[in-house]
Amino acid sequence: MEGRTSSISSKIQTPKYGELITILSVDGGGIRGIIPGVILAHLESQLRELDKDENGNKKEDARLADYFDVIAGTSTGGLITAMLTAPVGENGRPYPAENIVRFYKENGPKIFPQTSGCLSWIVDLWQALKGSKYDGKNLHKAIQDKLKDTRLQDTVTNVVIPTFDIKKLQPTIFSSYQIESNPVLDAKLSDICIGTSAAPTYFPAYYFIKEDEHGNTREFNLIDGGIAANNPTLVAISEVMKQITKKNSDFLSVDDLQFYYERFLVISIGTGSKKTEEKYDAKMASKWGVISWLYWKKSTPLIDCYQESSYDMVDYHISVIFNAYNCQDKYLRIQDDTLSKEVSSIDLATSENMQKLETVGKDLLDKPVSRINLDTGRNGPVGRTYKEKLEGFAKLLIEERKLRESNAKGKKELDDDKDARLADYFDVIAGTSTGGLLTALLTAPDENGRPISAAEDIVPFYFKNGPDIFPQTSSCGCLSWIVGLWKALTGSKYDGKSLHKVIEDKLNDTRLHQTVTNVVIPTFDIKRLHPAIFSSYKLRSNPVFDAKLSDICIGTSAAPTYFPAYYFTNQDREFNLIDGGIAANNPTLVAISEVMKQITKENPDFTSIEPLNYRRLLVISIGTGFKKNEVKYTADMASKWGVISWLYWKKTTPIIDCYQEASGDMVDYHISVVFQALRSEKNYLRIDPLGSRDITGSSHCRYNNMYP
């Protein structure tokens, strides 16, 4: 299939369907936009090369906007952002990234016309004193011709472009996320880009009026977005975090900052810097007046200082946060701090200098990744080259897009399908004793590969079969307890035949490996005096556990004194099983442990999850209720019991009740403590007749008085 191509058919699905939140950010820097243009073209070429459809065909029309949730840009970066996201290219697609360098080479000399001759510095100074260095007409025309009448809402992915309103003396952030609540921001991309590019002393401030569909108008008096955020990466992250706080349905609703910072995948691209040149020093600057601060040897020291500090402080803040959450490998800052003299100019648009800028971009790809040292504030190499790092990021972006497409497709099919089942939504379903039978009913496939029972079938199942499984004694009055006691003394209360038949008829010959999702069912082997956990995850390493679901369910239901122990063999191993409640009447912790074991073993199903990362777990644990509030037993009462009373007292089994309730409560307690310690308590729900467990320490928490 080599040589054939495929196409991208739709926008990237929202982050709730995936594992990451992907952000691309481009700094301001005038004609130096050529440098990120080279980097972006390389990244897009990697995506085209590596992203293939199910037939192995390359996605030749892939665009960066197909892989990023947000693309942000300031000044020249804002123009690049618009070119990467506006649907004004061929077939309504954005321009390919390879067009960016071409755009600057074609339009740069017109946007930044150069003065020549020995008196050029006097001409430039005079121009700077009486007005902007450039009138901006060619800039406006180039942008308007490129972007046409496209508005912010039309972009193919979310866009964030900072500007600064000189009349309001505050930043104005044009963000796709803000359009719904503030439709007056839905301006033409050309107006936004001209505004964010209106660098003081270089281009005149830009004025326009926007009227929304309700007749509300707003005037904008804009200058360069670099005044507010020359490196817009932090603005982009903040825009996303605002949406998360507002419960935007595009994002999973989790009140945990670490959860989200661990999901960010951020590429931030600079336009180069002249730090190593050390062009200015204190002795020099101490002699400057207003003119020298604004114009000195064809540079603008004051603006340079503000912009460089913006680059670095944003990089510093983000690096600190990502380091704190141990996810620094998901943040890539690409910047060359070694520009010198003419190459560092933001407006030297000669053919020679533009070629040098393109070379800088190409050379940068082969340099080792540089990362800020949080102690010294200086950047230093950390190993792999930018080219290698970008290839790794490209693979992550492709995997993320495919994951979202798969999950979104699956969810749509389920949402549109009245045959949706609980097993379609859970990675693991666990159950003990009667819960084990429920688990099997919810996961065992029918002839169409769907679970044999919907959840709504469970209650009718018990109503229909309960009287046969638990036949009641017909003796009346005082004789009924004697009959019950006699059965308890001579054998199990019920012979289990009806239970066995019901389970076998329902589950047939289905085996553990056939369930439609992973299953965990605890039992207890009375011969080995050891729990036997039947888990889907064990089958590859221990296939002897791939027993019939009917055998497993009969075994886990064999409650002492109620049903006889259950014996069967599978692949030459014998099982002597009794009620799984002996080991784990509440199987929630067993299920979590089975998952954690797989993560530790680096099961590829869990590649993006760290061991003991409970923040990634969403757990619902359902009890079957008990009579705690009844206070049926007391110490005074129990102090008089012998063996018989502990095993049979007024038609109950006190010793079994105590063990099972202790098991259920201690599991709930341990899980609650862990989830609370990790501030993920909203990810764990325990349901029983007493209500959901409150682990916050409030007065109605059932565990407040567990320990003195």
Write the layout of secondary structure elements.
Elements (H helix, E strand, L loop, with lengths): L4 E2 L14 E6 L7 H17 L7 E2 L10 E4 L2 H10 L13 H13 L8 H11 L6 H11 L10 E8 L4 E6 L13 H8 L9 E6 L5 E7 L2 H4 L3 H13 L11 H5 L2 E6 L12 H4 L4 H5 L6 H24 L6 E4 L16 H15 L2 E5 L6 E7 H30 L12 E3 L3 H10 L14 H12 L9 H12 L6 H11 L10 E8 L4 E6 L13 H8 L9 E5 L2 E6 L2 H4 L3 H13 L18 E4 L12 H4 L4 H5 L6 H24 L6 E4 L21
pLDDT < 50 runs, ≥5 residues: 1-5, 691-708
> What gap, in angstroms, lies between the N and C termini?
71 Å
Query: What is the number of beta strands?
Result: 19
Largest sheet: 8 strands, mixed
Fold and architecture overview:
The model is unreliable at about 1-5 and about 690-708 (pLDDT under 50). With about 700 residues, the protein is α/β, with parallel strands linked by helices. It contains 24 helices and 19 strands. About 40% of the residues lie in helices and about 15% in strands. The longest helix has 30 residues, at about 385-415. A hairpin with a 5-residue loop joins strand 7 and strand 8. The radius of gyration is 34 Å and the shape is elongated. Strands 2, 4, 5, 6, 7, 8, 9 and 10 form an eight-stranded mixed β-sheet that branches.
Please tag this protein with its features.
alpha/beta, about 700 residues, elongated, about 40% helix, single chain
Summarize the structure.
Belongs to the patatin family. It contains 24 helices and 19 strands.
